[in-house]
Amino acid sequence: MLNKKILITGGAGYIGSHANALLNTLGFQTIVLDNLVYGHKESLHYAPLPFSHKNVFTKNPTASSQNLETNNFAPTHTAHTQMAENPHSKLTCHTEHSEVSKKLDSRLFANAQNDKEVIQKRQDDKILNTTSSKTQTHSTDSNILNTQDSALDFLAQLVRNFNGGGVNTQDSILYNNLKSNLNSNNDLSRQLHTAHKNTTFIHSSLSDKATLDSIFSTYQIQAVMHFAAFAYVGESVKDPSKYYYNNVANSLSLLESMRKANVKNIIFSSTCATYGHPLHLPITESHPQNPINPYGYSKLVVENMLKDFSHAYGLNYVILRYFNAAGASMLFNIGESHSPETHLIPLLLQTALGQRETLSIYGDDYPTKDGSCIRDYIHIDDLANAHILALKYLLNGGKSEAFNLGNGEGFSIFELLECASRLCERKIPYTIESRRDGDPATLIGDSTKAKEILGWKPHFADIETILSSALNWHSNQRY
Ligand SMILES: NC(=O)c1ccc[n+]([C@@H]2O[C@H](COP(=O)([O-])OP(=O)(O)OC[C@H]3O[C@@H](n4cnc5c(N)ncnc54)[C@H](O)[C@@H]3O)[C@@H](O)[C@H]2O)c1
């Protein structure tokens, strides 16, 4: 087991909680620092989705995950609290665990050599097809099986990324950690059910320097994933001070504490908003960074701080510039819950589910194929996985870099609307409003660099899977 830990600031938020769950699944002990201004403590007490779980929208949404545990541990107001396992847990996993484990094993231990991998994959597919036809009687929807397979493939890919070569032998900690936590002799279900116990939650703000220093002196922190920030573009225009204080000043406090404690590795959540209006598409990392709002500026300032700290103090960083994070975990009962919600996909699906009256579409006269804005959506698990790869990269001595993270493909709002309507089998009411200031017609990212250097490969790239996972979450939203 690792005795060094990963500090995750903002780890109770949407993206941070997904990265936390994957890190825990791989056996990493994490320290989550979050003031819960926007985050959810429940997102740290997650449970696996049953593998027979209908991970697509059902017309009877109450049926699917009511049996999943919700947050019923005591509220935390103290600074340091270890998450405790709930002894009354009612978690259930409906599929034969050994069968699921076997499927994962066949993926995990596929030979890393390409040709052998292909052969293994074909064999796996054969096994899966046979298994699928056997289990088909338990289900009326082949999507369940596809989703299960896809989630298992993802998990296997996650582990193989570390296990299958490329890990510096000096960093045997990582290798041994993974080997002991997800290997063929372990029960997959048990691993997934207990993963959350690897999280230690600290309810505090980045602005509390004493707590920050005490975290670094109490725990051996190997690296920091820095998600904590405010991220409402419109609010940043109205109240920039709030953004420069939280996103910039508090990031500086974090870097100062890291410097004092000699912690050298950080992965920073940046954004495509640092590019401003695109001069060319898809946007590459070398595209000029000219943000058009205080939110984008605040992130760019931190990027520059990281570069200066790297130059002066030897800090190692990976800057990840996300495009639109979307969807919900394919493995755990966690998902997107912002309040207020401003992200398109939750708004769209909440409207589809009758939780909102209508979806506002801002502008239908853009120079795009159908007049609505086009954006690049990246599945949250793929995004979280990129953080794990960035961590591996830094721990293996990779040089400080910035990477875009998007799917490289754009979808218009009307395309999303059509896809969601199809999945829900209902019309989704919408109104056309006037354009919002500063909304570019099209934003699409080029993630070639992340693919080439980090070895990142999006696993849930198609928009239907992204929307299905989100729909599944919003139909049974836990927090
Ligand atoms: N969601 C996206 O599509 C997207 C796109 C680009 C960049 N980002 C960046 O990714 C990061 C995470 O975004 P998200 O969508 O998960 O947002 P989120 O609001 O769900 O998560 C942010 C978390 O940080 C916490 N937090 C904020 N200020 C804090 C402080 N001072 N101390 C401790 N905790 C604090 C919040 O409580 C919250 O849990 C942000 O930095 C955001 O700018 C997000």
Description:
The structure is a single chain. By secondary structure, the protein is of the alpha/beta class. An 8-stranded mixed sheet has the order 3-4-2-1-5-6-7-12, with helices on both faces. A two-stranded parallel sheet has the order 8-11. A two-stranded parallel ribbon has the order 9-14. Helix 1 links the parallel strand 1 and strand 2 (30-34). It contains 15 helices and 14 strands. Nicotinamide-adenine-dinucleotide (NAD) binds next to helix 1, strand 2, helix 9, strand 6 and strand 8.
List of distinct ligands in this structure: nicotinamide-adenine-dinucleotide
Strand content: 5-15%
CATH arch. level architecture: 3-Layer(aba) Sandwich
What's the pLDDT, averaged over the residues?
81
Topology (SSEs and partners):
Layout lengths: L4 E5 L4 H12 L4 E5 L46 E2 L14 H12 L5 H22 L6 H22 L8 H10 L6 H7 L4 E5 L5 H10 L2 E6 L6 H6 L1 H21 L4 E7 L22 H20 L2 E7 L1 E3 L17 H9 L6 E4 L11 E2 L1 E3 H16 L5 E5 L5 E2 H12 L5 E4 L14 H7 L8 H13 L4
Parallel strand pairs: 1-2, 1-5, 2-4, 5-6, 6-7, 7-12, 8-11, 9-14
Antiparallel strand pairs: 3-4, 10-13
The structure holds nicotinamide-adenine-dinucleotide (NAD).
